[in-house]
């Protein structure tokens, strides 16, 4: 193991401990006492808050003050961080949108000049294709806060007449839009909302919310009971790749005996949506079941053909 990698591993290992002795390091990382002593000195220089204790039961104690300790990265790891930041910066809207470019610049300036040049060169060579945003969403930060702190939010859903009080389960990004899975605390219903349709959001810390375990059970029941119609389609290899790029929570791609299948469940109200989704896969999909989906799909195909006659 390289020295930089070993120091990082030691840092992670010791970060969760209150004390340790020399033998623990030599045994855990298969190093000599001399190497262990050098590592301890370097870890202290890096900012690990430790001090030695003498005596029979002596060793090293780690201060319980939580400090940010520098971690060493090799060039491949640094490059991976910059690629991740660049790709996230290209997402149309995120809860932390303003942070990505500033983090990018701060990290870049902290590197030696030769590393900066290499990073910029690689970033110029690799091109990112921005996924177009259908509509910007202004309330992602608040939704994220509500989800992480298990707080309710009140909002006006532009697709509903009355205000709603929601408990946010998660948020996800797909096809240029942000969605949230949420439980309506007044109506006691669980569903998926488009984030850009939720307006006038406010945190409501006084509202009683479900415990996380209970919310998870509600979510499972929703996907098991709301979408009751099972479907199964055969996919070509190209169709498999296309489906994986645009897969919804109620769908999955499976491979059995070298054959690819798209399976899942949908609600009867989602029939038109399912047809439009499968049409995007073109000749790379063939519906096996149910017949109602197949009939609706063929009907739409005939409608498309007739439009050219």
CATH topology of the largest domain: SH3 type barrels
In percent, how much strand structure appears in the residues?
15-25%
Q: Helix/strand/pairing class, anyone?
A: alpha+beta
Mind telling me the C-alpha Rg?
A: 27 Å
Helix proportion? 40-55%
Specify the CATH architecture of the largest domain. Answer: Roll
Number of strands: 12
Report on the biggest sheet.
Answer: 5 strands, antiparallel
Order of helices and strands: HEHHEEHHHHEEEEEHEHEEHEH
Mean pLDDT across residues = 85
CATH class of the largest domain: Mainly Beta
Number of domains: 4
Catalogue the unreliable spans: none
What is the overall shape?
extended
Query: How many helices in DSSP terms?
Result: 11
* Cα-to-Cα separation, first versus last residue: 69 Å
Strand order of the largest sheet: 7-6-5-4-8
Provide a concise account of the structure shown.
With 309 residues, the chain is α+β, with helices and mostly antiparallel strands. The protein has four domains: 3-62, Arc Repressor Mutant, subunit A (Orthogonal Bundle); 75-125; 140-224, SH3 type barrels (Roll); 229-306, Alpha-Beta Plaits. It is built from eleven helices and twelve strands.
């Amino acid at each position: 193991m390289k020295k930089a990698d070993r120091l990082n591993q030691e840092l992670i290992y010791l970060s969760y401990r209150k004390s340790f002795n020399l033998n623990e390091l030599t045994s855990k990382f298969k190093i000599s006492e001399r190497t262990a002593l050098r590592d301890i000195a370097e870890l202290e220089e890096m900012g690990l808050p430790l001090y030695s204790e003498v005596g029979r039961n002596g060793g090293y104690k780690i201060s319980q003050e939580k400090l940010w300790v520098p971690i060493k990265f090799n060039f491949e790891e640094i490059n991976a961080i910059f690629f991740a930041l660049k790709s996230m910066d290209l997402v149309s809207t995120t809860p932390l949108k303003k942070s990505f470019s500033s983090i990018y610049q701060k990290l870049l300036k902290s590197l030696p000049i030769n590393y900066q040049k290499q990073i910029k060169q690689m970033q110029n060579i690799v091109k990112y294709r921005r996924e177009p945003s259908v509509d910007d969403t202004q309330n992602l930060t608040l939704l994220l806060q509500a989800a992480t702190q298990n707080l309710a939010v009140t909002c006006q859903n532009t697709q509903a007449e009355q205000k709603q009080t929601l408990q946010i389960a998660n948020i996800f990004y797909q096809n240029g839009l942000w969605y949230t899975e949420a439980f309506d605390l007044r109506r006691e219903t669980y569903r998926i909302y488009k984030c850009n349709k939720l307006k006038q959001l406010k945190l409501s810390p006084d509202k009683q919310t479900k415990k996380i375990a209970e919310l998870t059970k509600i979510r499972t029941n929703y996907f098991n009971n709301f979408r009751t119609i099972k479907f199964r389609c055969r996919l070509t290899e190209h169709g498999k790749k296309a489906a994986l790029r645009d897969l919804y929570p109620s769908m999955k791609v499976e491979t059995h005996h070298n054959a690819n299948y798209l399976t899942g469940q949908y609600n009867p109200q989602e029939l038109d949506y399912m047809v439009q989704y499968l049409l995007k896969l073109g000749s790379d999909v063939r519906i096996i079941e149910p017949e109602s989906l197949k009939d609706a799909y063929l009907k739409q195909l005939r409608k498309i053909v007739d439009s050219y006659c």
